[in-house]
Amino acid sequence: MRLLIKNGLVIDPSRQYEEKADVLIEGDKIAAVFPNIEIANAQVLDATNLVVAPGFIDLHTHLREPGQEEKETIETGSKAAAMGGFTSICCMPNTNPINDNATVTHYILSKAKESSLVNIFPIGAITRGSKGEQLAEIGEMFKAGIVAISDDGRPVGNSQVMRRAMEYAKSFNLPVVDHCENKDLAAGGVMNEGYYSTMLGLKGMSHLAEEADVQRDLILAEATGAHIHIAHLSTAGSLELVRQAKQKAIKVTCEVTPHHFTLTDSVVVGYDTNTKMNPPLRTDKDIEALIEGIIDGTVDAIATDHAPHHEDEKALEYDCAPFGIVGLETAVSLCLDRLYHTGKISLMRLIELLSTSPARIFKINRGSLSVGAYADVTIFNPNLETSVDPTKFHSKSRNTPFANWRLKGKVINTIVGGKIVYQNC
Amino acid sequence: MTILVILRIILTIVAFNHKDLLGIKDLSKEEILSILDTAKSFKEISKRPIKKVPSLRGRTIINLFFEPSTRTRTSFEIAAKRLSADAINISASTSSVSKGETLLDTARNLEAMCPDVIVMRHSSSGAPHQLARICKTSIVNAGDGAHEHPTQALLDALTILDHKKAIEGLEIAIIGDITHSRVARSNLHLLAKLGANLRISGPPTLLPPAFERLAEGYSGSVMVTPSIEKALRNADVVMMLRVQLERQASAYFPSLKEYSYFYGLNKKRLELAKSDVIVMHPGPVNRGIEIASDIVDGNYSLILDQVTNGVAVRMAVLYLITGGSSANAQKEVLER
User: Do B209 and A195 touch (CB under 8 A)?
Assistant: First the structure.
């Protein structure tokens, strides 16, 4: 089985390659990348005017299976990923049961093998039941195939437990991913604390809640030598802490979501629960800082925090509705529209943030179009305008604040292991 | 004179064409004045031996209260009845909400019985806004979380105007738990829109961030200060807010005793205000905590006048929201 991608602009940050070229795939591997490949017996994919990139990798996805299949399954989540241009997704452990032991990890991977269109890389829990008390069976999960550990959404409050987790994870070379939120400082808030929470009378969650935990994690990472990865970093203060830590050579990486660099807390006016996520949408000043970090390299990756919720739950009062929005099917268009077309970053940098760099952070053997690499490819049209239509989402859930947004840039093809899993019609 | 009459007519024409009353923030100065005008006309009805006009005969008004309330619920009920509307009261504890029905489903079911107005109180900010989006029925917000309580601000303004010529230029102190107060927010919008200068005060832990920015674009001003003395100095109006015991448990202040000592209104502090100061409180009052008993019962206190005016304001709101105009209100009252 041969697949030839013709005439695209091939951009591969793993070797700083940017050239109009063809990509030949044989089986599930990249066989050749150079201009004007002539070969018989190959299926040809015309990529004229399109960008051909190593497949995008989402470090932060909630697939809900097992346990909450009414929101999403591994199958529907993987379809959403394929449609959004992601060839690999890393799924958070907050399923039911929680992925805190090898049995659950094996289950997820076997379901993935059966029904997923894209590669699934599970993230294990840090603590048993994500209760923040005893360590989960991290080593066994590592052997079963997890790529990182996290108690995302229920962050480890006990700093001694976090310290032990870092010490322990380091021996397996596993990154520790933290949703940084000091629960005492967050104080049950449902949106960013500031002018808009004051206006709307909603409980505010201060940026301090995030920054206090980022600071703690950095101190522990420095002492333990573990790799800390800050999930969905959202404030100017957190970014500055990470920037300083990197200068001190602390092993820290961080991700930013498209919604955090696109929207501010002003959109909560009107009480649409699709504007409720955790961390909450912040301010213009924070967006400015995040984009600065994306430009200067402080931000390592863009991740979606794809968090499907059933519409019945999102139809509750703002205080009661669950946190989170779906992101897999809007992320790439938002990145192109907000980061590339505004002149903030090049396509090379964008692809690095979506593919090469996430692969490096979780040590996933993907994110490159070098000969011999897995043939995971994302092909997109940076200039095609698209309108966000949630009714066409492949995710089971529709909870997005971007309905009807017009964005410039669209995924055209997603190829996983040499197989076309998504084709834009 | 004729110019005044014409002006008044123009004013009533621009008056009220909102489906819902969700907050003061959404109202123009003219709309606020028109509601107050209508309320003034209706005040007289409550003083008659037969306290009823037929204005809303055949209309159905549902009071849907998800939070306990005596004053506001009774006030809305009396207002509806004095206008001859049929008023139905539902409190969350007796409704299907306790059986796990969602707010929106409850609303859909009530709407299926064709009411004209749903008056709603809810502990979650924005709940009436969510209802208003899906219902054709008019929604009147009777208090949502810490967001707004529009009829409270209107009755406060009506009470002030009983004693002061205009809101514009008044020095008004609002003191207490500002963070959790929908009364403070609605009053800020109303009073600063009408040109008052507000002094907002309370323990620094209960002053929400950027509160003064809520008045951006209004003709009045807002100063936020943790010093109650600074807020009271030369004030024309003092509004005290209820402080809740549970805030003590969340470390907002050490004790009610200490709260009272530093932020309570007593005779001595009140002397800082103007000699013709008026004192208000939305109730229920914690005597001896945020306000001393002798002030509650004293000459400066308008606390019960506020309650009386509440009925007139709610009559006006129900009347206008069901399609009445300020000019006709005068007529309805006179015809009887």
Answer: yes
